[in-house]
Design the sequence.
């Protein structure tokens, strides 16, 4: 893909000369990073499958909204929080859940039905905070939309 400049965007995005350019709306800047050159390794396939499974969970709009509100509350409390979006916080919470409950949770096979049936702490932001997967912030009790 060639780097392009589009009308209505505040910067261009794409790949050019071994670099990736993208616009970050919160920072209001176009950022550039080196394109990764990863060797083919077996754990790359594992991470690919896990990220596909996480995306396949498709959380509800209310759940996503709760994560966005939680991230804003977290940023208001602590300015050093550098998470760019709700999704990165969501993925971080899922990895923490797998680390805390390795016998119950496998991110390669996690489904929405399993989350509901086993009452896993990722079912809502409030449950994740109460289980210690996320840091408590004032007003978290109202963030109880289900996945």
Sequence:
């Amino acid at each position: 893909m060639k780097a392009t400049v589009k009308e209505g965007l505040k910067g261009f995005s794409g790949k050019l000369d071994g670099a990736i350019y993208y616009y970050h709306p919160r920072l209001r800047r176009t950022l550039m990073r080196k394109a990764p050159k990863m060797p083919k390794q077996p754990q790359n396939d594992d991470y690919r499958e896990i990220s596909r499974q996480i995306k396949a969970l498709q959380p509800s709009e209310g759940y996503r909204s709760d994560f966005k509100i939680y991230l804003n509350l977290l940023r208001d409390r602590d300015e050093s929080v550098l998470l760019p979006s709700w999704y990165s916080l969501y993925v971080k919470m899922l990895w923490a859940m797998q680390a805390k409950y390795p016998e119950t949770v496998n991110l390669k096979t996690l489904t929405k039905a399993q989350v509901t049936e086993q009452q896993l702490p990722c079912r809502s932001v409030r449950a994740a905070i109460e289980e210690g997967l996320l840091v408590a912030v004032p007003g978290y009790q109202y963030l109880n939309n289900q996945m």
In short: The first helix runs from residue 42 to 56. The helical segments are 42-56, 61-77, 86-100, 112-117, 125-130. The beta strands are 14-16, 19-24, 29-34. The chain has two domains: 1-37, 42-142.
